Amino acid sequence: MLRVSRLYPKSRVGRALATTKRYQSSVCGAYFPDEPSRPELITERIPGPSGIKLNEDLGKVFDNRASNFVTDYFNSIGNYISDADGNKLLDVYCQISSIALGYNNPALIEMAKSDSMINALVNRPALACFPSIDYGKILNEGILAAAPPGMDKVWTALSGSCANETAYKAAFMYQEAKRRGSIDFTSEELTSVMENKAPGASEKVILSFDKGFHGRLFGSLSTTRSKAIHKLDIPAFPWPKAPFPQLKYPLDEFVNENHSEEERCLAILEDIITKKHPPHNIAAIVVEPVQSEGGDVHATPFFFQGLRDLTKKHEILMIVDEVQTGIGATGKFWAHEHWNLSEPPDMVSFSKKFQAAGFYFTDPELQPNKPFRQFNTWCGDPSKALIAKSIYQEISKNNLVQKTAQVGDYLYKSLSSVFSKYPDRIKNLRGENMGTFIAWDCVSPEERNKLLLACRTKGVNIGGCGEVTVRLRPTLVFENKHADVLANILEDSLKDLYK
Length: 499
Ligand SMILES: Cc1ncc(COP(=O)(O)O)c(C=O)c1O
Prior knowledge:
4-aminobutyrate:2-oxoglutarate transaminase activity; PyrdxlP-dep_Trfase_major; binds pyridoxal-5'-phosphate; pyridoxal phosphate binding; 2 domains
């Protein structure tokens, strides 16, 4: 552990990691015993002067107009993110939902210092052509050990968008291979595809849902339907979309209405499949367990089971996009485990909290009939697969998914109590029994943004999504004590805004 503390000897992290004993005790009690017990604020505003200056300099060479504040990752620890001015904020946004185990997690730092990691970093392989001697073992002990129930194969990719796009390509090649049967590619296919035309270029489509988000590369962007600004000016495939249920809250007061809404959406979907498209034209349907960027829109297991039934009935592949919901935050390792599907999805994509990206599948036919059809230079990254392995092992060793489910229940109750005092300002609290994957709505985008800013000024880094939604995306080492800090600061912020 001394070696680890040498990494950042003068920082809080270095001091925290210097004591092996303290870390060992952390896994059964507080995970990061040396993180601050509450936000530590140095400047009146965040960003402060140092952050503003650094950002100005960076802006001359890099488009940083989306920057919230410049971060000091050396001095961030556990659930607390440090900015360039030394402010320490409780982080419930976590790099857009992608920090699983807290900043400077000792287990990940150990992995980062290992020979395997050094080797993976300095000799990045073109994995499909020259796979490393240990890639199979790394996958089996990490990404594949974490595979969703019933799935046993993976294709590794480079980002969430890339994970989805490679899944879409697998879907098209699978469906066209089924159409073609045992016949090889025709000469017409081979020539027309070079003109970007059918029959070589498939005319099949991927269906996605209104307000869904699946990424910003060309193919994934065509399935993204959350905000126009992400799509403007970019050529798009003419692919269909279906409505996603709009549930009313609290759920127990609108059981019948919500059920009818889900039936309505399933009926429209079946209409699109059967009346608006020729048979077998829809290669796959992609769906998020909770539409995250679109505003944390939930549906019930009834809807997702209905979707699975329709995809089976019409021989359409079902892709579940778990880029944001995967890796424990909903109180299950994979959010779709909440649904108890009669049959697993055909593909499940992942990225974010796993750091590595890709998609899981089971059917060997989802691997195209020839090499190089699903291919790029790197086809993933062993260094990220090693980090994913450490994340998986740390989650398993410390029961972090179960703990997240418990902390989520505690947090949900605390928030219900705080928000009950502001029924006209805060609406649609959602994510009960979904771990810490909790969200609520404000009454306008302006009020939502004011709340986000008020929280930041009081020491909580928190994110929005959709038009009026606040979403929580804390780490899996977020405990009841952090939930208390969050609830208190939210309450103070609401008091200030609506006194
Ligand atoms: C559900 C979902 N899918 C795909 C993506 C795209 O991932 P990336 O930004 O890594 O390409 C995101 C990103 O927010 C996402 O939330």
